[in-house]
Specification:
Layout lengths: L3 H8 L5 H7 L11 H11 L3 H19 L10 H11 L17 H4 L9 H13 L9 H12 L7 H9 L6 H8 L1
C-alpha cells in the first residue's frame, strides 16, 4: 500500500519546530503554542509505542497466517487458529491482546488488503528511512524537489522499492524506524 507511505512521511513533519511554528498558533491572537505544551505533545508521541507496534505486528502476522493456508487446507477453528498463529510468531502476550479478531478483521478478507495488512507498518518503516535523506533540515528545497520528482510524481508508475532506492541512493532499511520507537 504505497499510497500510505507519503502520508506517513508527512505526518512526521508536523512536530518539526520549523513546521510546527507555522500552524500551532492561537486562532485569535496568533500567539505561538506555549513551549511547555509543545513538550507534552512531543513526549506523548512516544507513549505506548511498544504496545502499539506489537499489536499492529500481531494483526499483520495473523493476516499472513490465514493467507498461507493452501486452498485444500481443512476448515479451521478460528479461535484455535488465531491462538496458534500468535504463538508461532511469538506475539501471544496477555499484555497485548490482538487488535482484531478474524471474524471482524475486514482487512484480512477484502478491501484490497488481503495478505497485505503489513503494508501500513512497511509504510512507516519507509517513511522513517526516507526522512534520513532530509537530515536535520526537513525544509530543504533541493531534497524536497527530489522527493516530489522521484517519489511522488512517479506514484504507482514504477515499483515502490525502485523509487525508494532512487531517492535514497541505496536500499531501504528499518534502522530509522527503530530509532523513532526509542524517542
Amino acid at each position: 500500500d504505497f499510497v500510505e507511505f507519503p502520508s506517513q512521511f508527512n505526518e512526521h513533519w508536523a512536530l518539526d519546530p520549523k513546521v510546527f511554528a507555522n500552524y500551532a498558533k492561537h486562532y485569535q491572537t496568533g500567539e505561538p503554542m506555549p513551549q511547555a505544551l509543545v513538550d507534552k505533545i512531543v513526549k506523548a508521541r512516544a507513549f505506548n509505542q511498544g504496545y502499539g507496534t506489537v499489536e499492529y505486528l500481531a494483526a499483520a502476522l495473523l493476516d499472513q497466517a490465514w493467507h498461507q493456508l493452501g486452498a485444500d487446507a481443512p476448515l479451521q477453528d478460528v479461535d484455535t487458529f488465531e491462538a496458534d498463529a500468535l504463538k508461532r510468531y511469538k506475539v501471544d502476550m496477555a499484555e497485548v491482546p490482538p487488535r482484531y479478531k478474524t471474524p471482524y478483521f475486514a482487512h484480512i478478507w477484502g478491501g484490497g488488503y488481503s495478505a497485505g495488512y503489513y503494508a501500513y507498518l512497511w509504510s512507516e518503516v519507509l517513511a522513517a528511512d526516507l526522512r534520513t535523506a532530509f537530515g536535520k533540515n526537513l525544509l530543504d528545497p533541493v531534497v524536497g524537489r527530489r522527493w516530489r520528482d522521484t517519489v511522488l510524481a512517479n506514484g504507482s508508475q514504477r515499483p515502490p522499492q525502485a523509487l525508494v532506492r532512487e531517492f535514497l541512493g541505496r536500499d531501504s532499511n528499518s534502522q530509522a524506524f527503530f530509532e523513532d520507537l526509542k524517542r
